[in-house]
Specification:
Helix 1 (15-25) packs across helix 8 (239-251), helix 4 (81-94) packs parallel to helix 5 and helix 6 runs parallel beside helix 7. It contains nine helices and twelve strands. By secondary structure, the protein is an alpha/beta fold. The radius of gyration is 19 Å and the shape is elongated.
Length: 269
């Protein structure tokens, strides 16, 4: 099998982008064919490998996706909602695998991504970690087994994160809602301040903490009469997210167009 050529989109000069560049370069059968950055980024034109602490790859950071997607088989995308939506359309036109780790997407954004997935393979997840996906499965089972217990999700990330709750927290919330057979959108409490009154039955609560350099910590609390169950996960290195995204890019080759999740990738592992 020939090498899978991958365009890395994560702010390739940033921390997540560099982790993905390293993961692709270290994966047998995969090569970096292009790296995207936003227009005006100071590292445009720099070698992507050098920025990631690797040897030179001969791949320069570019702000023009069209020539890069034309020679790619997969696009790994941890960017911003507006960028992801635009890239979803371009990836669908190019018929390449689009791996999406972008968070903060709106309902309208997701509708556009679903439309793109009619023409290309899209693997979208709030988190590409093996541990988090296992945690989501456990949360669903616990929420099913303990239908009367209150569910609270607490997450903490670094001070630069711009969206809240995190995509992972929402993924865990969706798992709990699925376990209860309810809609998260209709049973979600995103913030409490002042005289809020007693906790509403059946809601799934969220609390978002920001500070320092925390990569990601998530806890799901199921609180019942006289006891609490806490399911938690701590991310210690961005490499695990990058490795999961690379695995998704490989998995998507040859699949039928559609919108897939990391759970689909793991189920076939």
């Amino acid at each position: 099998m020939s090498d899978i050529r991958v365009v890395v989109v994560a702010g390739a000069g940033g921390r997540m982008g560099q982790a993905i560049l390293r993961a692709v370069s270290e994966t047998p059968g995969m090569v970096v064919s292009g790296a995207l950055e936003r227009p005006g980024h100071p590292d445009l034109g720099a070698d992507a490998g050098t920025l990631a602490g690797l040897k030179e790859l001969g791949v320069k950071l570019s702000d023009d996706p069209l020539p890069l997607l034309a020679k790619a088989q997969a696009l790994i995308d941890f960017t911003t909602p507006s960028t992801t939506v635009a890239l979803a359309e371009l990836s669908a036109q190019a018929r390449i695998v689009h791996v999406i780790g972008t968070t903060g997407l709106t309902g309208d954004d997701n509708a556009k991504i679903r439309a793109a997935a009619r023409h290309a393979v899209v693997v979208k997840s709030g988190n590409f970690s093996l541990g988090i996906n296992l945690l989501a499965k456990l949360v669903k089972e616990a929420a099913t087994a303990l239908p009367s217990y209150d569910v609270e999700i607490v997450e903490m990330h670094h001070r630069r994160k711009v969206d809240a709750p995190s995509g992972t927290a929402l993924m865990l919330g969706e798992a709990a809602a699925a376990g209860r057979g309810i809609s998260l959108a209709d049973h979600s409490d995103r913030g409490r301040d002042g005289q809020t009154g007693a906790r509403k039955d059946g809601v799934i609560g969220f609390a978002a903490l920001r500070g320092g350099t925390v990569i990601g910590e998530h806890s799901v609390i199921l609180a019942g009469p006289n006891e609490r169950i806490v399911l938690s996960h701590s991310a210690e290195d961005r490499a695990m997210f990058a490795q999961g995204a690379v695995a998704a890019a490989k998995w998507g080759q040859g699949k039928k167009p559609g919108l897939y999740a990391m759970a689909d990738v793991l189920a076939s592992a």
